[in-house]
Design a protein that fits this description.
- By secondary structure, this protein is of the alpha/beta class.
- It contains 21 helices and 15 strands.
- Strands 5, 6, 7, 8 and 9 form a 5-stranded parallel sheet that branches. Strands 12-11-10-13-14 form a 5-stranded parallel sheet.
- Strand 1 and strand 2 form a beta hairpin.
- The two termini are 36 Å apart.
- Belongs to the glycosyltransferase GT106 family.
């Protein structure tokens, strides 16, 4: 739910991407009608007819029956799906610019920056009370609730060897590994240490042992699932010493446990070994509790990073804490997805003009050959922005955090890949948060040298520093925040301590150069409060345990004291 808008100065409330118009029986359909700071012109017969139908239905008493239809129609009209020319009548830009079609955040920043400066070096320390303890329940890890702590005294005889291929980046690999553990437990199979596919996007040649602690992984699962580093030589000889000769079962995405028992298990018993490649998202979210427990055990306990990653990550966390002396050792971490490929894939436009367009066209063609040039494909950057699908720029992230109440004394850790035009887009963020750090500032060039060229290992460093921050900010979705949010819930008594902004509201706020500072702050502080109330969430049948570990991996402890200062170091 969206909170009530407190915007003033004629700015339309960003509570919902719909036009609201007064009922007027004498409306001239050939004219334009106005909503907030937008003007919509009905230009063709289809638009006029649609408006007549909606108006007629709205005047009837049965309007409530048609509420869903009205909502969907409003959304479609607003987003431009029916070709409406939604134009601004004020607020900058050149001429009548469709809402969201122009990147106006720099104009908003130019107006609000003097007011932000006036609040610099404030006495209030938001990081000491950013999360309201009255809204929280206390949950504790209790994997033993679904998986016996001791497991089997002796594992039953294996039905064969399971070989899987994990693809994607760090957390996509993590998902594949833990699902493989669950499937191995389901089939009573011996799991071979997963093979990492060299992904064309990530281009990381790291093996399992380069990223995760292989010995600890085998040890932690020893009483539940048998894990081996490689196939026995006699069995490999049966397949001409070539793993590729082992039958590859093409398992559909989100397959049920029943499918594995009926289709995969017979082949496993018959051949002695089966291979499933690729193995990303190959197990359904809803599985029996004991199998779900294996996922919990793998993700939150058995999978820890390799020693070189753990050692450097621990140093980086300690350095970040020391640099956060003005906020009692607490800091904010933010995951910024503003790399060139992310900007290109989003099809959003910023303020780079023709040069930016040319660079994005090249990037799209390089990574997704022809996908964005298919016949009939229409790209609407403005609609993408208003729908909250555009990556937030570092400038927008900074304005959002300052509006929420984090001042220039806040220590900020930025987890990111290579930011697109970093010098241009990072400068205003550093201006708002001079105590800004990243892995490149917390670790020396010599310390980072063994990790360079290995995106998953670098992501593991970011993951760890973000895990121990007082507040984590996610800006674009993806596996990194999904896994991190779940891990933070597991670590912090069920509360994610995560700020997940409403990007549709943000799009309208950043599209309003005339907005007042107090109205801007009011909206963002409401957004922060909403993130706090949504910090404790439970897994639904269709959602991932890796993001929502309750109640499968955690149990409620109503009278346990808050342990915010007693953080278990999992690095």
């Amino acid at each position: 739910m969206h909170g009530l808008s407190r915007l003033g100065n004629g700015v339309s409330p960003p509570s919902s991407p719909r036009f609201r118009h007064a009922r007027n029986k004498n409306t001239d359909l050939s004219a334009s009608f106005t909503s907030g700071n937008c003007q919509v012109k009905l230009q063709n017969f289809a638009e006029k007819l649609g408006f007549m139908i909606v108006s007629a239905v709205y005047r009837r008493r049965g309007v409530l029956l048609f509420a869903p239809l009205l909502y969907i129609s409003g959304m479609l009209l607003y987003m431009g799906a029916l070709g409406f020319d939604a134009s601004r009548t004020s607020g900058g830009g050149t001429g009548l610019d469709p809402i969201g079609s122009v990147y106006r955040s720099p104009q908003v920043f130019e107006k609000l920056w003097p007011l932000m400066e006036a609040e610099n070096n404030g006495s209030s320390n938001l990081l000491t009370n950013v999360w309201n303890p009255k809204l929280h329940q206390v949950w504790k890890p209790c994997i033993a609730h679904t998986v016996s702590q001791e497991g089997f005294a002796e594992l039953p005889k294996s039905n064969g060897y399971l070989i899987i291929e994990a693809n994607g980046g760090l957390n996509q690999q993590r998902l594949s590994i833990c699902d493989a553990v669950a499937v191995a437990g389901l089939l009573n199979a011996t799991l071979v240490i997963p093979i990492f596919h060299l992904n064309s996007v990530w281009r990381d040649s790291s093996k399992f042992c380069d990223i995760f602690d292989e010995d600890f992984f085998i040890y932690a699962l020893r009483n539940h699932v048998k894990v081996v580093r490689e196939l026995p030589k006699e069995l490999l000889l049966k397949f001409d010493n070539n793993i590729s000769s082992i039958v590859n079962l093409r398992v559909k995405a989100w397959s049920s446990p029943t499918y594995y028992l009926l289709k995969v298990l017979p082949k496993l018993k018959e051949l002695g070994a089966v291979r499933i490649a690729p193995f990303s998202n190959r197990l359904a979210h809803s599985v029996p509790p004991n199998i779900q427990g294996l996922r919990c055990l793998c993700n939150f306990e058995a999978l820890r990073f390799s020693e070189p990653i753990r050692m450097l990550a621990a140093k980086m966390v300690d350095r970040m804490v020391k640099k956060s002396s003005k906020t009692s050792g607490r800091y904010v971490s933010v995951h910024i997805r503003f790399e060139e490929d992310m900007v290109a894939f989003s099809c959003c436009t910023y303020d780079g003009g023709e040069e930016e367009k040319h660079e994005m066209d090249i990037a799209r063609e390089r990574s997704w050959r022809g996908k964005f040039r298919r016949r009939g494909r229409v790209i609407r950057p403005g609609a993408n922005r208003v729908d909250g699908k555009c990556p937030l720029t570092p400038l927008e992230v900074g304005m959002m955090l300052r509006g929420m109440g984090f001042d220039n004394n806040t220590s900020l850790y930025v987890a990111a890949g290579k930011i697109y035009k970093a010098e241009k887009y990072m400068t205003p963020l550093k201006q708002m948060f001079p105590r800004l750090e990243s892995k490149d500032t917390l670790a020396s060039t010599e310390e980072l040298a063994p990790f360079e060229g290995h995106s998953s290992r670098l992501a593991a460093l970011d993951y760890t520093v973000c895990l121990y921050s007082e507040a984590f900010v996610t800006t674009q979705g993806g596996n990194f925040p999904h896994f991190l949010v779940g891990h933070r819930r597991y670590l912090y008594e069920g509360h994610a301590k995560t700020i997940k902004p409403d990007k549709r509201k943000l799009a309208l706020l950043f599209d309003s150069p005339d907005i007042r500072w107090n109205d801007f702050k009011s909206q963002l502080q409401d957004m922060l409060h909403h993130s706090d109330t949504k910090g404790v969430e439970f897994k639904k049948p269709s959602s991932s345990l890796y993001t929502f570990p309750m109640p499968d991996c955690m149990c409620k402890h109503a009278d346990v004291k808050s342990a915010s200062g007693n953080r278990r170091r999992l690095v």
